[in-house]
Write a structure and sequence with these properties.
Elements: H1 2-12, H2 20-27, H3 31-43, E1 47-51, E2 55-60, H4 67-71, E3 83-86, H5 92-101, E4 109-112, E5 133-139, H6 149-166, E6 171-174, E7 178-181, E8 184-196, E9 199-209, H7 229-233, H8 239-259, H9 261-271, E10 278-283, E11 286-295, E12 301-304, E13 310-313, E14 317-322
Parallel strand pairs: 3-4
Antiparallel strand pairs: 1-2, 4-5, 5-9, 6-7, 7-8, 8-9, 10-11, 10-14, 11-12, 12-13
Helix pairs in contact: 1-3, 2-3, 6-8, 6-9, 8-9
The chain binds biotinyl-5-AMP (BT5).
């Protein structure tokens, strides 16, 4: 707590030096304790210049997520009321599922700086080096099971909106769980559920966003398909700000979801780049080709085949064939 106070004071004095005496007076600890906290901030990666007779000032902020920074000005009602932050996790979804089973509160968020076994759908891997965002949110919605897939769409709306709020990049959603910039994947979502009969015990909404990672952290075959917000925006992105905005958007859209799922679907339609295109969708052992016509009230993709017949698809991988709308 005192360390955070010292950090806040140093940050608010910008480039001006703050003396050890002043820091001690304003925080109510001894000058020796101020010095110990300064050393601890340096161990956290902060660059702090110490000038005899002048004091201390920050010269470098590390790109590290900090619990207090994330919470500053967050003001969410449900999502992010509890934050569990780890330097490393096998998978934040796995951790969040365990915590949910042990009774963690709705809205609790598990975040990791990197994942060693990040997961996609169907046992696929999610490459998770440092520099990105990896988070999983525990939700306990009292909804019928067939509405659960809309949670993924809700998550995509929140992530896309947050990116639009903060980064000047043409971001859009590809059904069902991809967020793309210039046709390359910048974020993926994975919803996992624990249920009994027709009742949902809990859901975990996992979100990975490629923010500042180096492109060469990816295997070569993925590089043409994947991008980062920093690469698209041409500048490094503040991960803490983006994370906070994602949590705010999730908080807002989850509330909407509980009140009226149709409102979420309407927003999804505005932010998506799938509907109106000729596509193939593969999954469940078959590949369908046709026009992506709409999403239905359960979040399934409605495809019109060339013979005019329509199919409602609940899961799969979409490829956009031609005539993709420019966003
Ligand atoms: C997804 O699956 O897109 C869901 C990704 C969810 C990741 C989050 S991170 C926090 C939480 N904890 C987890 O363990 N998971 C969640 P899917 O649609 O199946 O896409 C997976 C495919 O995306 C892979 O097979 C690769 O082709 C590609 N891929 C892997 N890593 C990627 C990355 N960092 N960025 C973009 N694409 C990637």
């Amino acid at each position: 707590m005192y360390k955070e106070k010292i950090l806040n004071l140093l940050r608010s004095s910008h480039t001006a030096f703050l003396s050890g005496e002043e820091l001690a007076r304003k925080t109510g600890v001894s000058r020796t304790m101020v010095w110990k906290h300064i050393k601890s901030l340096e161990r956290d990666g902060f660059g702090i210049e110490a000038m005899p007779s002048q004091g201390y000032r920050i010269t470098f902020e590390p790109d590290v997520l900090r619990q207090n920074d994330i919470k500053q000005g967050l003001k969410t009602k449900v999502v992010g009321k509890e934050i569990h932050l780890f330097p490393e996790a096998a998978s934040t979804n796995t951790l969040a599922m365990e915590m949910a089973t042990q009774g963690a509160a709705e809205g609790a968020v598990v975040i990791a700086e990197l994942q060693t076994s990040g997961r996609g759908r169907l046992g696929r891997k999610w490459i998770s080096p440092k520099g990105n965002l990896y988070l999983s949110v525990i939700l306990r919605p009292d909804i019928p099971m067939h509405k659960a897939p809309i949670i993924t769409l809700m998550g995509a709306v929140a992530v896309t909106s947050a990116i639009r709020d903060l980064c000047n990049v043409p971001v859009a959603i590809k059904w069902p769980n991809d967020v793309l910039v210039a046709s390359r994947k910048v974020s993926g979502l994975l919803t996992e559920m624990s249920a009994e009969q027709d009742r949902i015990r809990h859901l975990v909404l996992g979100i990975g966003v490629n923010v500042n990672m180096e492109q060469n952290s990816l295997p070569p075959d993925l590089r043409p398909l994947v991008t980062t917000l920093a690469a698209e925006a041409g500048t490094k992105i503040n991960r803490t700000e983006l994370l906070r905005q994602i949590l705010r958007q999730l908080d807002c859209w989850y509330k909407t979801f509980l009140n009226n799922t149709a409102d979420v679907l309407r927003e999804w339609e505005k932010l998506n780049m799938t509907i109106g295109n000729r596509i193939t969708v593969s999954g469940a052992g078959e590949t369908l080709e046709g026009l992506a016509q709409a999403i239905d009230e359960e979040g399934r993709l409605v495809i019109m085949r060339d013979d005019g017949a329509t199919r409602h698809v609940a899961a799969g991988d979409v490829t956009i064939l031609k005539g993709a709308r420019v966003m």
